[in-house]
Queue: 2 jobs
Job 1
Amino acid sequence: MSAAQPPAEQFAALGALAGVVHGFTTRVSDIDVAHDKAEVLARLDHVHREVRNAYGVGDRPLITAEQIHGNRIGVLDRAGEHNECFAGCDGLITNRAGVCLGIYVADCCAVYLVDPVRHAIGLVHSGKKGTELGIARNAIQSMTKQFGSRAEDLVVQLGPCIRPPHYEIDFAAEIVRQCRDLGVIAVNDSNVCTACDLTRYYSYRAEKGRTGRMLAFLALA
């Protein structure tokens, strides 16, 4: 893999912000991913690591969430020294530099949250159930409680996720609504459907559960 062209993409709204590093990995065509999640992540790990290296955060501890389709938010309020997974959580927030937040998706939405004023970030895994439980809303409220973030200062970005007609509901639209109801002005949606382009993305629904995962990552520079 060329470091100049890693299998990943970025979003203009986040790229315009100073002080943050982000990315969203894409499909890796030469890796067999017709396995369970644990095996798939093991097979993709070296590619995800190379992508993080290409973006300058490969040497940082990767902080992930267990992702149980709930609405709990893990708070990293200390210096991270090792890779860590927050049990029982589907979202992460921190104001610490030197770590990289990560969420794995394959139809669910990765929601990036950046507070450029108070230098805090969040990353959320929000599918149908998590959206119904208001996890993005919980993450914003947690950033307010923990770091003093104000909704009107936040920049929110929704990554590629499954959408109608490939899925029965448009949970991305509901995530946008929840964020705006809290007062977030800068809510940006990629408007990309994972199930529409299986050459670029993995889709759990379209590939009947035997597929890879995209890694959404976010860090303070």
Job 2
Amino acid sequence: MTDILTTIDSIVWGPAMIALLLGTHVYLTFRTGFIQRKLPAAIRRSVRRDPDGKGDISSFGALATALAATIGTGSIVGVATALLAGGPGAIFWMWIAGLFGIATKYVETYAAVKYRVRDRRGQMMGGAMFVWKRAFARPDGTVPWWATLGAVAFAAFAIIATIGTGSAVQAAAISGIVTSSIPAIPAVVVGLVIVVAVAAVIFGGVNSIARVCEWLVPVMAGAYALGCLVIMAMNAPVLGQAVGLILECAFTAKAAFGGAVGSGMIMALQFGCARGLFSNESGLGTAPIVAAAAKTRNPADQALISMTGAFWSTGVICLLTGLVLVSTMIAHPEIG
């Protein structure tokens, strides 16, 4: 089974997907006039509220909810797996994918907000499935079969991804950490606490989820970034060497850490781009679903705010994680 999954993974994330993914990011970067230049203004705008905007949650709440799905599994664990599979150079390509992916995040969010609708309860709904149906609708209101197929396919894949094992694995990891640190607490108790806490949040709907993420995500990300800075300060003597190794391995076929880590520019590019997508979800279509519920009067405003998510998750958290891992492996080769 492992061999089958490995084969599928190598096909899906082969040269064609890399070209399509990076090509789309680069194309949209130029098509939007290098929208990344507006990052400073977008960051300032992300903490402002629009009292007259139409929607269900604040713009910052939508951003924090999207970041909650990427900081951790994508920006932390994803960096470690990219490093192990593609070598230090993969970190560079993750950062490049994230930098250009900002434009893709802007475009997909703009479309999601522009074509969002209200359901029977008056709540906003949006995402790629609504873009497919509304953007390509004919003047008489009918929808081409291929647009309907695209909408259904995206919705189906989104459901499959939601029902996946990711949440179960994370819950099991949390339970394992708590029970190993405090053996007196039974695993079933930890499990029940997790179930009750999660249920209390998600059963409240998108408003409840956004309110929790608004305060939880900044604290979580800030604490993690602070920890990374402390470790980087401890590894300061080899920090420059770590940066040099990342850049060298990104463009050469040199192996690193005695062959324990993957080697070669192609491997670095492949796993860097793959994990880059996982770390910021640019082009994945999930973040725009949440962004469509944001209180805003202009799709461009929310698109600017949402695109900062790619910067925070990949441009900051991924970069810090990569520097910590590589510098630590250089400073302490015995743990590599």
